[in-house]
Amino acid sequence: MTINKDASVITTVAATATAMIGVISLSGFTITTGGELKGSPAGSEGLTTSRPGAVVIDFNDAPDLDFTTVGTVNQKGATYTPDETLVINNGGALVPTTGAVPFSGLTQNNTSAYLSLPTNSQDNVGTNQVSIQLPKPSNYWGMHWGSMDASNQIEFFRGDTSLARFTPDDFVSLGVGPGAGSDNQTEAANNPYMNFSAEGSQQWFDQVVLTQRGDDETLAFESDNHAYDSVPEPLTILGSGLALGFGAIFKKQQSRRRQ
After folding, report:
1. In this predicted model, what pLDDT tens digit does every residue of 21-60 receive, in sequence order?
2. Global confidence as pTM
3. How far apart are CA 97 and CA 2, in angstroms?
4. What's the pLDDT score for residue 23?
5. DSSP string of 95-111?
6. Rounded distance, CA 191 to CA 199, Å?
7. End-to-end C-alpha distance for the chain, whole angstroms
Protein backbone atom coordinates (compact mmCIF):
# COMPACT_ATOMS: atom_id res chain seq x y z
CA MET A 1 0.00 0.00 0.00
CA THR A 2 1.11 3.54 -0.70
CA ILE A 3 0.79 5.64 2.43
CA ASN A 4 -0.01 9.32 2.44
CA LYS A 5 2.19 10.51 5.31
CA ASP A 6 0.11 13.67 5.75
CA ALA A 7 -3.18 11.81 5.98
CA SER A 8 -4.87 11.38 9.34
CA VAL A 9 -8.29 10.29 8.12
CA ILE A 10 -9.12 7.83 5.38
CA THR A 11 -12.14 8.91 3.33
CA THR A 12 -14.33 5.95 2.52
CA VAL A 13 -16.03 5.38 -0.81
CA ALA A 14 -18.58 2.88 -2.07
CA ALA A 15 -17.41 -0.73 -1.79
CA THR A 16 -18.57 -3.99 -3.30
CA ALA A 17 -15.81 -6.10 -1.74
CA THR A 18 -18.20 -8.83 -0.63
CA ALA A 19 -19.12 -9.73 -4.22
CA MET A 20 -17.48 -12.63 -6.01
CA ILE A 21 -15.44 -11.12 -8.84
CA GLY A 22 -14.00 -14.22 -10.46
CA VAL A 23 -12.02 -17.43 -10.25
CA ILE A 24 -8.53 -18.26 -11.49
CA SER A 25 -6.25 -21.30 -11.22
CA LEU A 26 -2.53 -20.74 -10.66
CA SER A 27 0.27 -23.03 -9.46
CA GLY A 28 -2.12 -25.67 -8.20
CA PHE A 29 -4.37 -23.23 -6.32
CA THR A 30 -7.87 -22.00 -7.08
CA ILE A 31 -7.97 -18.30 -6.21
CA THR A 32 -11.14 -16.30 -5.71
CA THR A 33 -12.20 -13.00 -4.21
CA GLY A 34 -15.17 -12.48 -1.94
CA GLY A 35 -15.96 -12.57 1.75
CA GLU A 36 -18.40 -11.31 4.34
CA LEU A 37 -18.55 -8.09 6.35
CA LYS A 38 -17.39 -8.75 9.91
CA GLY A 39 -18.38 -7.04 13.13
CA SER A 40 -21.28 -4.96 14.35
CA PRO A 41 -21.97 -2.64 12.61
CA ALA A 42 -21.18 -4.81 9.61
CA GLY A 43 -17.73 -4.00 8.27
CA SER A 44 -16.34 -2.50 11.48
CA GLU A 45 -13.96 -5.49 11.69
CA GLY A 46 -13.27 -5.66 7.97
CA LEU A 47 -13.99 -8.56 5.64
CA THR A 48 -13.80 -12.17 6.69
CA THR A 49 -14.05 -15.60 5.11
CA SER A 50 -17.36 -17.15 4.10
CA ARG A 51 -15.88 -20.68 4.23
CA PRO A 52 -17.74 -22.80 6.83
CA GLY A 53 -15.54 -24.25 9.54
CA ALA A 54 -12.45 -22.14 8.81
CA VAL A 55 -10.46 -20.81 11.79
CA VAL A 56 -10.36 -16.98 11.75
CA ILE A 57 -7.54 -14.90 13.25
CA ASP A 58 -8.59 -11.26 13.69
CA PHE A 59 -5.81 -9.76 15.90
CA ASN A 60 -8.45 -8.08 18.06
CA ASP A 61 -6.67 -9.13 21.25
CA ALA A 62 -3.81 -6.73 20.48
CA PRO A 63 -3.01 -4.09 23.13
CA ASP A 64 -5.11 -0.93 22.90
CA LEU A 65 -2.44 1.21 21.24
CA ASP A 66 -2.09 2.84 17.84
CA PHE A 67 0.39 0.16 16.90
CA THR A 68 2.37 -2.52 18.69
CA THR A 69 5.59 -4.13 17.50
CA VAL A 70 5.60 -7.72 18.69
CA GLY A 71 7.74 -10.85 18.59
CA THR A 72 6.37 -14.37 18.23
CA VAL A 73 2.58 -14.45 18.42
CA ASN A 74 0.35 -17.50 18.75
CA GLN A 75 -3.12 -17.00 17.36
CA LYS A 76 -5.63 -19.87 17.47
CA GLY A 77 -3.00 -22.53 16.84
CA ALA A 78 -1.06 -20.56 14.22
CA THR A 79 2.36 -19.26 15.23
CA TYR A 80 3.46 -15.91 13.77
CA THR A 81 7.23 -15.46 13.79
CA PRO A 82 8.15 -11.93 12.72
CA ASP A 83 11.52 -11.61 14.49
CA GLU A 84 10.42 -8.30 16.05
CA THR A 85 9.30 -6.84 12.71
CA LEU A 86 5.57 -7.49 13.02
CA VAL A 87 3.24 -4.60 13.71
CA ILE A 88 -0.35 -4.93 14.87
CA ASN A 89 -2.32 -1.73 14.37
CA ASN A 90 -5.26 -1.25 16.69
CA GLY A 91 -8.39 0.81 16.29
CA GLY A 92 -8.00 1.29 12.55
CA ALA A 93 -5.11 3.69 13.12
CA LEU A 94 -3.23 5.19 10.19
CA VAL A 95 0.39 5.27 11.29
CA PRO A 96 2.85 6.89 8.83
CA THR A 97 5.18 4.31 7.25
CA THR A 98 3.50 1.60 9.33
CA GLY A 99 0.16 0.85 7.71
CA ALA A 100 -3.29 1.91 6.55
CA VAL A 101 -6.39 0.03 7.61
CA PRO A 102 -7.76 -2.51 5.06
CA PHE A 103 -10.82 -0.80 3.57
CA SER A 104 -14.19 -2.51 4.02
CA GLY A 105 -16.98 -0.14 3.01
CA LEU A 106 -18.76 3.16 2.68
CA THR A 107 -21.12 3.09 5.65
CA GLN A 108 -18.76 1.38 8.08
CA ASN A 109 -15.04 1.00 7.47
CA ASN A 110 -12.76 -1.34 9.42
CA THR A 111 -11.89 0.12 12.83
CA SER A 112 -10.43 -3.06 14.37
CA ALA A 113 -6.87 -4.31 14.83
CA TYR A 114 -5.05 -5.67 11.80
CA LEU A 115 -1.60 -6.93 10.81
CA SER A 116 0.89 -4.63 9.09
CA LEU A 117 4.25 -5.57 7.64
CA PRO A 118 6.04 -2.29 6.90
CA THR A 119 9.07 -1.91 4.66
CA ASN A 120 12.24 -2.78 6.54
CA SER A 121 14.72 0.06 5.97
CA GLN A 122 17.18 -1.06 8.65
CA ASP A 123 20.67 -1.92 7.38
CA ASN A 124 19.48 -1.08 3.86
CA VAL A 125 17.55 -4.37 3.74
CA GLY A 126 14.24 -3.79 2.03
CA THR A 127 12.62 -7.19 2.61
CA ASN A 128 10.39 -7.77 5.63
CA GLN A 129 8.66 -11.10 6.32
CA VAL A 130 6.35 -12.87 8.72
CA SER A 131 6.14 -16.66 8.80
CA ILE A 132 2.82 -18.21 9.84
CA GLN A 133 3.20 -21.84 10.97
CA LEU A 134 -0.12 -23.70 10.93
CA PRO A 135 -0.85 -26.50 13.42
CA LYS A 136 -1.78 -29.02 10.71
CA PRO A 137 -1.63 -29.34 6.91
CA SER A 138 -4.30 -27.11 5.40
CA ASN A 139 -5.99 -26.76 2.03
CA TYR A 140 -7.42 -23.24 2.43
CA TRP A 141 -6.10 -19.79 3.32
CA GLY A 142 -8.04 -16.54 3.29
CA MET A 143 -7.31 -12.94 4.27
CA HIS A 144 -8.54 -9.39 3.86
CA TRP A 145 -5.66 -7.98 1.79
CA GLY A 146 -5.36 -4.24 2.39
CA SER A 147 -4.42 -1.73 -0.33
CA MET A 148 -2.52 -4.16 -2.55
CA ASP A 149 0.91 -3.26 -3.88
CA ALA A 150 3.15 -5.10 -6.32
CA SER A 151 5.71 -5.23 -3.49
CA ASN A 152 3.40 -7.50 -1.43
CA GLN A 153 4.02 -11.25 -1.72
CA ILE A 154 2.40 -14.39 -0.30
CA GLU A 155 4.06 -17.82 -0.44
CA PHE A 156 2.85 -21.27 0.60
CA PHE A 157 5.15 -23.97 2.00
CA ARG A 158 4.97 -27.59 3.08
CA GLY A 159 7.94 -28.06 5.34
CA ASP A 160 10.86 -26.41 3.58
CA THR A 161 9.32 -26.84 0.13
CA SER A 162 7.83 -23.80 -1.60
CA LEU A 163 4.57 -24.76 -3.30
CA ALA A 164 3.46 -21.42 -4.78
CA ARG A 165 4.27 -17.72 -4.66
CA PHE A 166 1.93 -14.86 -5.63
CA THR A 167 1.93 -11.07 -5.87
CA PRO A 168 -1.07 -8.83 -6.66
CA ASP A 169 0.10 -8.64 -10.28
CA ASP A 170 -0.97 -12.30 -10.62
CA PHE A 171 -4.61 -11.39 -9.94
CA VAL A 172 -5.20 -8.92 -12.76
CA SER A 173 -7.85 -11.14 -14.33
CA LEU A 174 -9.79 -11.03 -11.05
CA GLY A 175 -10.09 -7.25 -11.32
CA VAL A 176 -8.12 -6.58 -8.14
CA GLY A 177 -4.71 -5.18 -7.31
CA PRO A 178 -2.64 -2.12 -8.22
CA GLY A 179 -4.21 -0.04 -10.94
CA ALA A 180 -7.72 -1.31 -10.28
CA GLY A 181 -8.70 2.01 -8.69
CA SER A 182 -7.56 5.60 -8.42
CA ASP A 183 -6.77 5.41 -4.70
CA ASN A 184 -5.72 2.03 -3.40
CA GLN A 185 -6.44 2.93 0.24
CA THR A 186 -10.14 3.47 -0.41
CA GLU A 187 -10.99 1.28 -3.40
CA ALA A 188 -12.78 -2.03 -2.89
CA ALA A 189 -10.88 -3.57 -5.80
CA ASN A 190 -7.60 -2.91 -4.01
CA ASN A 191 -8.80 -4.23 -0.65
CA PRO A 192 -10.41 -7.60 -1.46
CA TYR A 193 -10.89 -10.70 0.62
CA MET A 194 -8.66 -13.28 -1.08
CA ASN A 195 -9.27 -17.04 -0.94
CA PHE A 196 -6.58 -19.62 -1.81
CA SER A 197 -7.72 -23.25 -2.11
CA ALA A 198 -5.33 -26.12 -2.82
CA GLU A 199 -6.46 -28.12 -5.84
CA GLY A 200 -5.03 -31.41 -4.56
CA SER A 201 -3.16 -33.04 -1.70
CA GLN A 202 0.16 -32.21 -3.35
CA GLN A 203 -0.57 -28.54 -2.60
CA TRP A 204 -1.57 -28.96 1.04
CA PHE A 205 0.50 -26.48 3.03
CA ASP A 206 1.53 -25.99 6.64
CA GLN A 207 3.17 -22.56 6.46
CA VAL A 208 2.27 -19.21 4.91
CA VAL A 209 4.90 -16.48 4.48
CA LEU A 210 3.95 -12.84 3.89
CA THR A 211 6.65 -10.58 2.48
CA GLN A 212 6.98 -6.85 1.95
CA ARG A 213 9.72 -6.27 -0.65
CA GLY A 214 11.57 -3.16 -1.80
CA ASP A 215 13.06 -0.08 -0.18
CA ASP A 216 10.12 2.35 -0.33
CA GLU A 217 9.36 3.35 3.26
CA THR A 218 5.88 4.55 2.27
CA LEU A 219 4.81 0.97 1.53
CA ALA A 220 3.52 -1.80 3.77
CA PHE A 221 1.68 -5.13 3.53
CA GLU A 222 -1.56 -4.93 5.54
CA SER A 223 -4.04 -7.74 6.14
CA ASP A 224 -6.79 -8.79 8.51
CA ASN A 225 -9.00 -11.76 9.38
CA HIS A 226 -6.61 -14.50 8.35
CA ALA A 227 -8.37 -17.85 7.95
CA TYR A 228 -7.21 -21.42 7.49
CA ASP A 229 -8.89 -24.79 7.17
CA SER A 230 -6.95 -27.87 8.30
CA VAL A 231 -7.14 -31.11 6.35
CA PRO A 232 -8.76 -33.97 8.33
CA GLU A 233 -6.28 -36.43 9.84
CA PRO A 234 -5.81 -39.60 7.71
CA LEU A 235 -6.95 -41.79 10.60
CA THR A 236 -10.09 -39.68 10.95
CA ILE A 237 -10.86 -40.13 7.27
CA LEU A 238 -10.16 -43.88 7.52
CA GLY A 239 -12.28 -44.17 10.63
CA SER A 240 -15.20 -42.41 8.96
CA GLY A 241 -14.88 -44.70 5.93
CA LEU A 242 -14.84 -47.82 8.09
CA ALA A 243 -17.82 -46.58 10.07
CA LEU A 244 -19.80 -46.02 6.88
CA GLY A 245 -18.77 -49.45 5.61
CA PHE A 246 -19.79 -51.24 8.79
CA GLY A 247 -23.04 -49.29 8.80
CA ALA A 248 -23.86 -50.49 5.27
CA ILE A 249 -23.05 -54.10 6.19
CA PHE A 250 -25.23 -53.87 9.31
CA LYS A 251 -28.17 -52.52 7.30
CA LYS A 252 -27.85 -55.35 4.79
CA GLN A 253 -27.83 -57.95 7.59
CA GLN A 254 -30.89 -56.35 9.18
CA SER A 255 -32.65 -56.36 5.84
CA ARG A 256 -31.94 -60.07 5.30
CA ARG A 257 -33.24 -60.99 8.75
CA ARG A 258 -36.56 -59.29 8.04
CA GLN A 259 -37.08 -61.27 4.82
Report:
1. 589 999 999 999 999 999 999 999 999 999 999 999 998 8
2. 0.80
3. 9
4. 94
5. BTTTB-PPP--SSS---
6. 25
7. 72
